[in-house]
Design brief:
By secondary structure, this protein is an alpha/beta fold. The protein has 4 domains: about 80 residues; about 140 residues, P-loop containing nucleotide triphosphate hydrolases (Rossmann fold), CATH 3.40.50; about 90 residues, no CATH class; about 120 residues. The longest helix is centred in the first third of the chain and has 27 residues. Keywords: ATP-binding, Leucine-rich repeat, Nucleotide-binding, Plant defense, Repeat. This is Disease resistance protein. GO terms for molecular function: ADP binding; ATP binding. It comes from Corchorus capsularis.
Length: about 575
């Protein structure tokens, strides 16, 4: 899987060679001849890559050959991309509703809701902890979402809280996450003791439902520490835990409550789910040969809904018998795994993506597990990194929107939601995220490619992504929007060695000099142009604007400085000499 992106990179280079920018700059003579020769060579290479990528699973020699070729391809792509600049424009995004509630899930949901309203159990336990156990891909999170959003459940609890735990069971982080879910704002308390006291106060005499999704830790001591402040809730408060590990379920669950084991889909239900995806509105019996092959593919999925949906979605546009047979008979099914069929199925689904979809999907591994990814920002990042192929005169954002929708339909994205402000977000199932990580395991180039993000033409952009400091090799960032949300503060710029142009917006959200200094502008030697924008209206901390500006001193190498919306009475001392200032 390590080099499965190579064909996508070669494809991108070919697209760029064929793009209109060559014509616009009048490439002629010897350079044009060299480019045509390079295009011919790359086309030949591309012809054998797809077959080689598929065979790398069973041939170490082919895998090593691909890795060597990969290094050369990335070098060509990096050199070629330096001759272009990527300008991204915002566009209106359509909401794609992919949420499904299957009959089997409905039955499971009703059983769990009935347990929540079991008066006998509720009277005997001030805090009931209910565990749902099952392997990855069975739909534990989807099932609990149905319970969480059920109208009866909404009416029964004063508070509903959702926290994704994943493989890092840090009591301080989880306690803070619970508080932030209740308050719908960030919590700045650092120490465990005051955090727990604050949580006790927020839960006092409140009947709450807490979802702890995807728990891996088998430490009973950590669970006891997290549970202690939860005991302050009102009688009838409930915690629902989802986990893949039976031992975790037994450690956390209330002994009197049975562990709910989420089973595999029966073969008949698996076929119905597959058929819904693969054949959509086609009448049953229209293609008996494909249906016969499809039923054999469904058996290989082993009753795992995520695998069934992924392969069903992948095959919906394939109508050749040979294409379906290649999936059924693929050697990937024989790969060693954890005993389940889920990862081979997901690999098959990935292998059947067009090259540009592979790149866009694998890129998402840079986000931590369970991250809410903003659709518009994700598309802009794809475009900025050259992953979205041009198609005639169409806008790249429009093509990026189609890519997002296609990846969502194929189950690579889930929890696609439109928020009240029009923002659309999505997540990746943790197994899908694992797949992206496995693809990129040896692809450190990804973090080298992300050196420039030019979004200066995205006038409708409302925020930059959380924790952008994780892109350690980022050299250019045209816009950074300061927000109070975690991971969006100005301190995210501290370790980034940014150059060229930088515009920092919404400085009204910077509290004072300490926070402003954390941007570390003085050490950004390559920064040539800096814009400091406070916003249209007076900020929440107007009295601090002078000290904030004073603490945003850039390096003396700066050539241009622009200040907008500043309401201080005096300029900073560092601005008296050495800077060409434009104040608006």
């Amino acid at each position: 899987m390590a080099d499965a992106l190579l064909s996508a990179v070669v494809n991108t280079i070919l697209d760029n060679i064929n793009s209109l920018w060559l014509q616009e700059f009048g490439i002629t003579g010897g350079l044009k001849t060299e480019l045509e020769s390079l295009q011919s060579t790359l086309t030949t290479i591309q012809a054998v890559l797809l077959d080689a990528e598929e065979k790398q699973w069973t041939s170490e020699a082919i895998k090593n050959w691909l890795r060597k070729l990969k290094d050369a391809a990335y070098d060509v792509d990096d050199r070629e991309s330096k001759s272009q600049s990527c300008l991204v424009d915002g566009t209106n995004l359509e909401f794609l509703n992919l949420f499904e509630e299957e009959d089997e899930q409905y039955e499971d949901k009703e059983k769990i809701v009935n347990v929540l309203f079991n008066t006998r159990l509720r009277d005997e336990n001030d805090l009931s902890i209910y565990a749902i156990c099952g392997m990855g891909g069975l739909g534990k999170t989807t099932l609990i979402q149905l319970v969480y959003n059920d109208e009866r459940v909404e009416r029964a609890f004063d508070l509903r809280i959702w926290v994704c735990v994943s493989d890092s069971f840090e009591v301080i982080r989880l306690t803070r996450a619970i508080i932030e879910s209740i308050d719908v704002s960030s919590c700045e308390i650092k120490e465990l003791d005051p955090l727990q006291r604050h949580l006790q106060e927020r839960l006092m005499r409140k009947r709450f439902l807490l979802i702890l999704d995807d728990v891996w830790s088998e430490s009973s001591a950590k669970w006891e520490s997290l549970r202690n402040p939860l005991m302050s809730g009102a009688n009838g408060s409930t915690v629902i835990v989802t986990t893949r590990i039976e031992k975790v379920a037994h450690i956390m669950a209330t002994p009197i409550l049975p562990i709910y084991h989420l089973g595999y889909l029966p073969e008949h239900d698996s076929w119905l789910l597959f058929k819904q995806r693969a054949f959509q509105r086609e009448s049953e019996g229209n293609n008996m040969k494909l249906e016969r092959i499809g039923k054999q593919i469904v058996k290989k999925c082993g009753g795992v809904p995520l695998a069934v949906k992924a392969l069903g979605s992948m095959l919906r546009l394939k109508r050749k018998e040979s294409e379906w047979l290649s999936v059924k008979e693929s050697e990937i099914w024989e790969l060693s795994d954890d005993g389940s069929s889920i990862l081979p199925a997901l690999r098959l689904s990935y292998d059947n993506l067009p090259p540009y979809l592979r790149q866009c999907f694998a890129y998402c591994c840079i986000f931590p597990k369970d991250t809410k990814m903003d659709k518009s920002w994700l598309i802009e990042l794809w475009i900025a990194n050259g992953f979205v192929p041009p198609r005639g005169q169409r806008e790249l954002c429009e093509i990026g929107d189609e890519i997002f929708n296609e990846l969502s339909w194929r189950s690579f994205f889930q929890d696609v939601k439109e928020h009240h402000d029009g923002t659309i977000t999505c997540k990746m199932h943790d197994l899908i995220h694992d797949l992206a990580i496995s693809i990129m395991r040896f692809e450190c180039y990804m973090f080298d490619i992300i050196k420039c993000v030019d979004i200066s033409h995205c006038h409708s952009l409302k925020q930059t992504p959380p924790e952008i400091s994780c892109l350690a090799h980022l050299l250019e960032l045209s816009i950074f929007i300061v927000r109070k949300d975690r991971g969006c503060g100005i301190g995210e710029l501290k370790e980034l060695n940014l150059g060229n142009e930088l515009c920092i917006k919404e400085l009204v959200n910077v509290e004072g000099s300490t926070e402003a200094k954390s941007a570390n502008l003085m050490r950004k030697l390559n920064l040539k142009s800096l814009s400091l924008i406070w916003g249209k209206n007076a900020g929440e901390f107007p009295d601090n604007e002078e000290e904030v500006l004073s603490s945003l001193q850039p390096h003396s190498n700066l050539l241009y400085l622009q200040i907008c919306g500043y309401q201080g009475l005096v300029l900073a001392a560092w601005m008296i000499e050495g800077y060409r200032v434009s104040r608006h």
